[in-house]
Every structure is written in C-alpha cells, then in structure tokens.
Amino acid sequence: MILILVQACDIPPYDALMAAQKDTWDKIEHPETKTIYYISSDKTEKTHFKDNVLYTKCPSGYPMLHWSMKIACDEIWDMEWDYVFRTNASSYIDKTLLVEFAKTLPKEGCYCGIDGGSYASGAGVFMSRDVIKILKDKLDDSPSDFEDAYMGIILGRNGVKLTPGARRVIVDHTNYSNIPHCYHYRCKSDNGDRTKDINAFYAIYGQNKIH
Description:
Blueprint lengths: L1 E7 L5 H10 L9 E9 L6 E3 L2 E5 L7 H12 L6 E6 L2 E3 L1 H8 L8 E5 L4 E9 H10 L8 H11 L11 E2 L13 E3 L7 H13 L5
Parallel strand pairs: 1-2, 1-5, 2-4, 9-10
Antiparallel strand pairs: 3-4, 5-8, 6-10, 7-8
C-alpha cells in the first residue's frame, strides 16, 4: 500500500490546485493507494482530519513546512501503508505506474526521489516506514527555508542514503501533446502562474495517461 501524501494549501491560488488534483488524477481509485492532503494551519485549534485533508496545527509558510511534515508523519503512523510517496500541489500522479515502480524499491531504507544534491527533491519522493520513523522522531521545530534539503540532512545523519532510479516528467507548458508516461509529472510553472499547472493536470488527464 502506498500512501500519497500531498503537501497542499487552502489559500488562493493554491486551493485551486488541490481541487484540480482531486478532479483529475486523484479521481481515479486504485486499491493499493490512498491519498491524504496535508495543510499547515495555525488557525486551527488542533491537528485534525476533514475527510482526506489533514490540517496540521503549525505556522504556515516555508520556514515551517518540515514541521508540518513531521506532524503528518505522526498522524499517519498507525495507518496501513508500506511506502509514503510525498508530493506537492503542482504534481500529477499516475497511481498505476506509481504502484508498479514501487515494486522495484527496497522495503527498508527507501528514500527515492530526484537527486537535488545529497537529498531527494520534495516534489516526489518515496519513503519506507523506517525512513518515515526517523523523520517522525528527529524533525524539530527549528525554522528552515529548505524543507526537502533539511529532511535530507536529518536522514543522512541517520545513515539513510538516496535510493537510485527515481523518475519524473517535467511538463512543457508550451506543448501538451505526446507527454511521455511516468508515475510523476512535475507541472509547476516557473513564472508562478498556477493556472498553467492546472491546465497541465487536465491535459494529462485528457490524454489517457492514467491506466
């Protein structure tokens, strides 16, 4: 079982990204996956679920995103899953290909994402239970502007190395035709226009990239 853990946001324009994810790739059910969207919220009285959205009692903003991830790890720990695939609001996921790729991964010590230079890119990374346990136990509430790099530092200190083989497609927003098949599509537009990310979601969805 793969738990797809999406770092999300309910503030415009990012709330529209979560809605579009739910209306495209996450609309397709797969028996070996479950999706949870987690959102940093310092306005909530306590960490809680609302359907499949987890509101973490945590200051919003980049410096505390790793702490929101730690809280999410706490909340999901007792659920049934073999891997977490942590992704973000501008990603499109092909669940079938995600499950197929996970079959090639080690059951322990799995930390598989695109190499960002000694750490896995937070846009899409597989982590096994023992790796999530380290994050759950070791992440602290010290501010950091680089969530994925900081998590990589913590894991490296605890003997976890990058697992090779990660894949992803970076979507070309000038041409949505013939997008290659992959379990992870990075749809984030570099100019900050989140409507382009959403357009990419629907373009992939409409081209039968799901199986």
